[in-house]
Input
Amino acid sequence: AQTVTQSQPEMSVQEAETVTLSCTYDTSESDYYLFWYKQPPSRQMILVIRQEAYKQQNATENRFSVNFQKAAKSFSLKISDSQLGDAAMYFCAYRSGGTGGFKTIFGAGTRLFVKA
Amino acid sequence: EAQVTQNPRYLITVTGKKLTVTCSQNMNHEYMSWYRQDPGLGLRQIYYSMNVEVTDKGDVPEGYKVSRKEKRNFPLILESPSPNQTSLYFCASSLGGQQRNEQFFGPGTRLTVL
Output
């Protein structure tokens, strides 16, 4: 069975600084996708960034980028130039590809605090 | 507007009283899924559906039922709710295949079972 582990329950960053959130996963599948979701106090789930396992290039979306280490099964999220609006809960998620259908595993989450 | 809607948004009920939480999407997505979110546990998948009349269990299906009679709707049924089903529930949908794999989430349903 697949697992996703976020080892940092809470993180804190100064505004304008850079922070990295960790995520490791375990799977025997070769076809899968990885995601980072943001959940602000409104509870809405917002996709931040996604990575296809078959792509070696790390995904980037503006101030958000990932460090995808497939062999190490690591998928960390880097937030550059942190803003007050980045304060939220962040979830790492794994989704099976191919015949695995729509099975999705989430980590327990990391709460990010941004200090002004 | 493309969206996933859930109803009700908030529900307080008592043990054993059957309830249904509705989920509807207007994006013609093949895949739909239900999750529950509990503190310290993240989101856990309850059931998912890959198309009409095709459903499968997620990690925590006990005490829940689903049906997918129409592509746009995927209701979650609690036949006999218990206090341990008190949680925040999310419905999500996605296109199938390799085209897109982003899940679109509904706003959530806060359920309290007394």
User: Anything to note?
Assistant: Chain B has a mean pLDDT of 93.
